[in-house]
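Work Package 4 report. The design task specified in the project plan requires that, given a folded chain encoded as structure tokens, an amino acid be chosen for each position. We show below one input record used in the internal validation round.
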């Protein structure tokens, strides 16, 4: 790239002019001031590559290139006054300097405050997928700090540029301030304008008229000349702002990413693709009204990602050129020569300019031919159970309230949401209203962008600065929550006001299904909110108590209320919830009350009010055993009881953010969990240590109730699989009676072989008066691993969470006790438990019924290994099954 002094703008505006120049002194002064500023700014520009080594060049080469590209884009018909060329050149120098720490007079401030903590929190969440601790945010590891600094510099660099022409530095021992623009008169006249134009390159094109005026004749649009320059040397700020952003957007050639620098720095990830494509691009040329980029070196198959990234940046440059051209045309201003980038609308044509080798760049993304139709089909995920749709809407409201709490440092129980169900003529309406942060127009416009969560985007840092750094942990992460409203009804109204906004700034968005465009408008006087927050109002497609409605239940179940359903979907909400139906307002729950409410309510609240009622006897038994689960640091992560039944589905619930996520089996009550996927399935967060301690306590409570032996054995197995000690509870039954785990080890140690049968043999519904006797080497008990969660994916919980060596996942406690008694090992191979003993296949007599042997039942046969057995010999446990008792009883 040639020197900037060879550019058209420099030559025509600031270079020495041929012939008589009446303003030669003034021109020379501006020229000298620019060269001095250029020299000073290069010291800061060189520091950028130290702080952001993976970024392409932002140094003198980039600054010089902008002069030529500005001349190329604007064309020969756009003139620049010397004052404009000076201001434009100064914006070239400072617009990116904020990407380096040295540009900030107080560099330490970068790693303090809301922006820094937000950036660290974002990096940690992206890395670990969960809420970072305050300690992690306050003391990030070096790699996390590096990524966070990169984010802060990128976000702040344009804002920083606004001050660079007027801010000063001081050298150690020298009290005199140091400026980039050292001349007081020039700094006073142009410093602020240089900064505003430099800042504007990071803003949308549509914002430029509001910053700099629409037309040069508009008052204040053109800055008049200071007293030391000719009066006709004005500055058209909007024109310069357009030139800066375009020149910067189209500087994509090899001068910005030289091959040697690329080889030395070896930038990681996507940065490598940035360097790779820019290193190949030649200087652009202007043909007609298009900018033409070419590449001399083809992109091979392994460089395909770089080629597509190149296309994305060329399209971004094309969009900038088109937007600026439209703005200038709409304002009646002279239009620039270049108005787009050649080839970006057709990969075939672009590949002739920027060639590929060994592959054809064709845009073949996954397409959705009828997006609304596909989305309507996806709604079946919510429509199968409308309570899930209600949960999603409540979740959004809870996130909004907790975000406001966090942002404004409000108490942990501040805020509330109201769920209302009312009738208006023939229509039923559901409303969910919160006192949360509210939404701006930009956020409301993104509501129908399904799959995009505000809380997981960079936009949250701009909309709610400091929120993530304060520890805000949203429940919603997948961007599908608002989508659930259409499972309840197609006509939806969203009314919202940002907490800090005026009442008159309330906004309303109206939606009528998936096939019409949303309408955003200012709220009418009667719609304006008196406080911040959001109201979602839905006209229900089906009356709530009709079949298929939100509150529909079977005839055998009493009428369901919206109050009861809210408690079911949000049993552990951290936000107080009220419900209103038929004009009556009731308290559903107070913030976090699941930790203190009565035991029976902990049991009842998670139960589905639409189809199931627990027997009072079972409820009372569960309530007796209900105890809190505490982590070692004192945090309560559950209130549960072990239900000692063989089959017990929907016993309790795993909560994510206080909302229902996963039904539990065997465990009754409430457990804190984390979300595992977009379906909101959750896994408990309780540590193995805390769960084991709680389970051991359950063994003592259950034993004290003197339950039937079958229930005690079921409880013992579940307690064992939770890492607890079954203690006095029997784990199996033998000919001499029940055996605890310790008794089983002693019993097994006295035997050469053992036959283990399922407890069904003992508790089968035998004819009245018959007598069943187990064989002397036979035991019966529950076999296999206890299941605690409904969905298959996390079914290994909690065994999958145990440290290696504590438990062997899938190993039954009886198997393990036998292995311990015989000094062997138990392990899993597929679904079969193995012991390094021997096995037999012949039919065996395992029990007798009224004195007649029973041999055709399912059993496991264990043979104790002899002392001479090879140390590495490993054989399996065999399962034999037959039809039943023979006709003659043998």
């Amino acid at each position: 790239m040639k020197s900037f002094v060879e550019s058209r703008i420099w030559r025509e505006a600031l270079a020495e002019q041929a012939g008589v120049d009446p303003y030669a002194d003034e021109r020379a002064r501006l020229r000298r001031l620019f060269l001095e500023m250029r020299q000073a700014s290069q010291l800061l520009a060189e520091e950028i590559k130290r702080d952001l080594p993976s970024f392409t060049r932002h140094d003198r080469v980039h600054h010089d290139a902008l002069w030529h590209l500005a001349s190329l884009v604007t064309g020969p018909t756009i003139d620049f006054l010397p004052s404009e060329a000076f201001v434009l050149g100064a914006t070239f120098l400072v617009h990116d300097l904020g990407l380096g720490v040295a540009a900030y007079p107080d560099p330490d401030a970068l790693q303090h405050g809301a922006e820094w903590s937000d950036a660290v929190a974002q990096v940690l969440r992206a890395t670990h997928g969960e809420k970072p601790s305050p300690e992690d945010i306050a003391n990030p590891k070096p790699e996390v700090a590096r990524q966070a600094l990169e984010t802060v510099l990128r976000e702040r660099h344009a804002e920083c540029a606004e001050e660079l022409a007027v801010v000063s530095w001081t050298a150690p021992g020298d009290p005199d301030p140091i400026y980039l623009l050292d001349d007081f008169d020039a700094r006073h006249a142009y410093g602020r304008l240089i900064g505003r134009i430099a800042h504007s390159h990071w803003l949308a094109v549509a914002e430029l008229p509001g910053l700099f005026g629409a037309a040069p004749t508009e008052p204040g649009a053109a800055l008049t000349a200071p007293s030391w320059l000719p009066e006709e040397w004005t500055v058209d700020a909007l024109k310069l702002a357009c030139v800066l952003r375009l020149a910067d957007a189209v500087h994509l050639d090899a001068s910005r990413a030289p091959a040697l620098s690329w080889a030395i720095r070896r930038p990681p990830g996507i940065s490598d693709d940035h360097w790779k494509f820019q290193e190949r691009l030649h200087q652009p040329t202007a043909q007609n009204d298009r900018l033409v980029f070419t590449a001399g070196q083809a992109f091979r198959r392994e460089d395909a990602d770089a080629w597509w990234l190149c296309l994305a940046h060329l399209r971004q440059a094309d969009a900038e050129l088109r937007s600026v051209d439209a703005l200038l045309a709409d304002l009646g201003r002279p239009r620039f020569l270049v108005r787009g980038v050649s080839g970006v609308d057709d990969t075939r044509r672009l590949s002739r300019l920027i060639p590929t080798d060994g592959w054809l760049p064709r845009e073949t993304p996954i397409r959705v031919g009828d997006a609304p139709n596909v989305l309507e089909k996806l709604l079946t995920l919510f429509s199968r159970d409308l309570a899930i749709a209600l949960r999603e809407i409540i979740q959004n409201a809870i996130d909004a309230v907790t975000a406001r709490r966090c942002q404004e440092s409000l108490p942990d129980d501040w805020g509330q949401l109201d769920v209302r169900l009312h009738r208006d003529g023939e229509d039923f309406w559901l409303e969910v209203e919160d006192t949360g942060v509210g939404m701006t127009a930009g956020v409301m416009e993104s509501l129908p962008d399904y799959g995009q969560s505000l809380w997981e985007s960079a936009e949250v840092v701009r909309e709610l600065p400091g929120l993530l750094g304060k520890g805000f942990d949203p429940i919603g992460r997948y961007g599908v929550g608002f989508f659930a409203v259409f499972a309840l009804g197609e006509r939806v109204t969203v009314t919202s006001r940002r907490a800090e906004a005026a009442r008159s700034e309330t906004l309303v968005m109206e939606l009528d299904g998936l096939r019409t465009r949303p309408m955003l408008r200012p709220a009418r006087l009667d719609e304006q909110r008196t406080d911040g927050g959001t109201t979602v109002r839905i006209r229900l497609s089906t009356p709530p108590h009709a079949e298929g409605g939100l509150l529909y239940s079977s005839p055998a179940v009493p009428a369901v209320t919206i109050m009861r359903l809210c408690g079911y979907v949000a049993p552990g909400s951290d936000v107080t919830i009220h419900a209103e139906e038929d004009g009556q307002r009731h308290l559903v729950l107070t913030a976090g009350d699941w930790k203190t409410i009565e035991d029976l309510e902990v049991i009842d609240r998670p139960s589905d009010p639409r189809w199931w009622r627990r027997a009072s006897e079972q409820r009372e038994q569960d309530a007796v055993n209900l105890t809190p689960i505490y982590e070692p640091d004192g945090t309560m992560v559950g209130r549960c009881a072990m239900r000692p039944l063989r089959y017990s589905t929907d016993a309790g619930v795993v909560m994510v953010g206080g909302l229902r996520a996963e039904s539990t089996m065997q465990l009754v009550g409430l457990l804190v969990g984390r979300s595992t996927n977009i379906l909101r399935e959750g896994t408990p967060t309780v540590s193995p240590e805390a769960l084991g301690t709680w389970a051991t306590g359950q063994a003592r409570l259950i034993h004290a109730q003197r339950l039937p032996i079958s229930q005690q054995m079921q409880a013992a197995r579940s307690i064992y699989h939770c890492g607890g000690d079954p203690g006095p509870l029997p784990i199996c039954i033998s000919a001499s009676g029940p055996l605890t785990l310790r008794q089983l080890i002693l019993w097994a140690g006295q035997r050469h072989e053992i036959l283990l049968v399922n407890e069904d043999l003992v508790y089968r519904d035998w004819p009245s008066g018959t007598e069943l006797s187990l064989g002397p080497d036979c035991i019966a008990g529950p076999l296999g691993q206890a299941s605690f969660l409904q969905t298959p994916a996390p079914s290994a919980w909690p065994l999958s969470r145990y440290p290696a060596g504590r438990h062997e996942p899938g190993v039954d406690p009886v198997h393990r006790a036998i292995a311990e008694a015989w000094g062997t090992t138990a392990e899993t191979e597929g679904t079969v438990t193995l012991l390094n003993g021997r096995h037999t296949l012949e039919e065996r007599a395992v029990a007798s019924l009224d004195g007649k042997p029973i041999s055709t039942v399912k059993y496991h046969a264990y043979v104790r290994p002899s002392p001479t057995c090879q140390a590495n010999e490993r054989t399996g446990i065999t399962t034999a099954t037959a039809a039943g008792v023979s006709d003659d009883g043998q």
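The longest helix spans residues 24-51. Validation will be extended to a larger panel in the next phase.
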